[in-house]
Amino acid sequence: MSLASPYQFDHRGRTAESSRERHVRDLIEAVLFTAPGERVMRPDFGSGVAQLVFAPNSPELAGATQMLVQGALAQFLGDVVTVREVRVEARDETLRVTVAYSLRGDDQVQVASFSRGGAP
Hints:
It is a single chain. With 120 residues, the protein is of the alpha+beta class. It is 28% helix and 28% strand. It has a single domain, classed as Nuclear Transport Factor 2, Chain: A (Roll). The chain has 2 helices and 5 strands. Helix 1 crosses helix 2 (59-77). It is globular. This is IraD/Gp25-like domain-containing protein. Residues 1-21 are annotated as: Disordered. It comes from Arenimonas terrae.
């Protein structure tokens, strides 16, 4: 078991825990939607993807965003996950990022989708 992220309390008033799989998914979400400079003690942490909701949509932007996400995940979570695929969709005011990954030491591929902006 791992600590729940973000930090929270469970129904007993104790520190909440989550499964390893859920913890890693939460870490991926934190990397994706944290803007560099947002964390005082780790100013380089994050990818800044959430800011791209307002950028003009184009195939070039989608490709650049995929590389940005893959690079950020490799930098901050490379010892925890192997990224298999990243898909980025920007529609209107909603940005959806889908990440296919496997936990280190496990070949089982997991897929998680994250969205920011308008309706999920």
